[in-house]
Amino acid sequence: MELNATSRVILGMLGRRPMSGYDIKSFVDRSTRFFWAASYGQIYPELRRLADVGLIEGTEEPQGGRKRISYRLTAAGRRAHRDWLAAPPQIHESRDESLLKIFFSDFAGPEATIAALQAKRDQHAAIAERLRAIGPQHKPPEDSALLALRFGIAFNDFIVAWCEREAETARARSGQPSVA
Amino acid sequence: MELNATSRVILGMLGRRPMSGYDIKSFVDRSTRFFWAASYGQIYPELRRLADVGLIEGTEEPQGGRKRISYRLTAAGRRAHRDWLAAPPQIHESRDESLLKIFFSDFAGPEATIAALQAKRDQHAAIAERLRAIGPQHKPPEDSALLALRFGIAFNDFIVAWCEREAETARARSGQPSVA
DNA sequence: GCACCCATGTAACCAGTTACATGATTTG
DNA sequence: CAAATCATGTAACTGGTTACATGGGTGC
Predict the structure, then answer these.
(1) B167, B153, B161, B165: which is closest to B102 by C-alpha?
(2) Coil/strand/helix, residue A17
(3) What is the pLDDT of residue B108?
(4) Are A145 and B103 within 8 A, CB to CB?
(5) Among residues A33, B18, B34, B114, which one has the fewest Cβ atoms lying within 10 Å of its Cβ?
């Protein structure tokens, strides 16, 4: 029963605590979004499929007249999630337009390379800032989730520093003195 | 005339030199693949579309009885490419299964977190190695392409070091002494 | 002669986003 | 009472990969 990409994050989230589809979506948006997104169009059909194959089970828990289905892992679901965790990671895709621009930038001259480096710098500085902002709000929920957050921050900070350094040397090379 | 994602890499490649669809595909596979992939199923239809809207033009240059269409940028294509380079980067997507595993790893206990860190480390060490291998083969073709390569290497090296550091502290925390 | 590379192209499929429909509840 | 939020769900679309079909050229 080949699990697809979205089911990984669903199983993972339900491994933390029972959740509704809505909960999963909003939690993903506040946590894994930067390296693993999911939309309603994926989540709801996938929840049904996972329930059909017995990896999760849903119980209706309406809040007043507002319907709500809370899902949790079954024993088989816990096993599947554990097995996935133990298996070597496969997927590592990225589409990085800022890096593509750097790659091609000398088509428009050395100033374009510097501009592309600065644009990338700014982009990652903004992400690092957003990641820092979500840090304190969740008080230590689970260790490894915070570890992933720390990774995101460290990693974006690294890119900011790298871009600054390279822009500096590129600026120096193209004759313009560095700071003033 | 909204350009799609694949057309960016096509325009960029043709900005370096005239190429066939086959050339583009194999060059992408040896260069931008890690941060911007493209498949034949995207490239060939897109070449036709770009030619239809006048951003590129193709000339048939059969090599013996083997057919071959070489494409190059038109003036409009050069303009479009330059405009794109100058615009702020938008797309920055990633799907990182190794980080998702770190995120969820404490579901299976602290040893699982350490294992996930090591798995991520190994993955990026392998990528860094592959990037280093392609470095010298292309002797400085264009500066900014090499800059992007250097970015890939630095960035993967950083992740390797980060994972090692975190695995170390995690190991120390879980009682097992670090090296021996 | 076989395997492999050059070269173009498409059909079938899969994954995923966007935008909408629907409706209850809460909050200002 | 309006707007935001909770909540589920789907249809239409977009983007993309995989796998195949086709055929000539090159090297062993």
Answers:
(1) B167
(2) coil
(3) 97
(4) yes
(5) A33
CB atoms within 10 A of CB B23: 16
CA distance B112 to B142: 43
Query: Which residues in chain A are closer than 8 Å to B17, comparing Cβ atoms?
Result: none
List, for residues A36-89, the tens digit of each pLDDT value: 999 999 999 999 999 999 999 999 999 888 899 999 999 999 999 999 999 999
**Nearest to residue B27, comparing CAs of B157, B165, B134, B150?**
B134
Q: Which tens digit of pLDDT belongs to each residue from A139-154?
A: 554 589 999 999 999 9
Q: How much is the pTM? A: 0.93
Contact A100 B35 (CB under 8 A): yes
Report the residue of A8, A107, A117 to disrupt the B interface, i.e. the one with the largest count of B CBs within 10 Å.
A107
What's the rounded Cα separation, in Å, for the pair B37 and A152? 23
CA of B42 to C1' of C12 (A): 15
Using the CA of A26, give the nucleotide whose C1' is nearest: D6
